[in-house]
Design brief:
Layout (H helix, E strand, L loop, with lengths): L3 H4 L6 E4 L1 H6 L2 H12 L8 H13 L3 E6 L5 E6 L5 E5 L5
Parallel strand pairs: 1-4
Antiparallel strand pairs: 2-3, 3-4
């Protein structure tokens, strides 16, 4: 797999995951979602959040994506505004 940071539209910073994601989402599904997030595919966000993310790329705000694992488990990926961290988490862990 390619180095995510080499193909990312923005710095991901330190990539971390919550315990819930570790237990519920496969590594392959996390990596696939992380690549999509890094390339500006925000997954299953609403149109308003998609537009907000596009603006955030330019203005340096937080980036938020929503994905679903093959078993329909929803998970989020959030890159902080300062690009120091990208967190993969379940919505109930927010």
């Amino acid at each position: 797999m390619e180095d995510v940071n080499q193909i990312a539209l923005f710095p991901l910073g330190r990539i971390v995951m919550t315990k819930g994601v570790h237990l519920a989402i496969s590594a392959d599904e996390m990596l696939t979602a992380l690549l999509r997030h890094a390339q500006g595919d925000w997954g299953d966000v609403c149109d308003e959040d998609w537009k907000t993310n596009e603006e955030s790329l330019v203005r340096g705000f937080r980036l938020f994506s929503v994905y679903h694992a093959s078993d329909k488990t929803k998970f989020w990926i959030i890159t902080e505004a300062d690009r120091s961290y990208t967190t993969i988490l379940l919505p109930e862990e927010y």
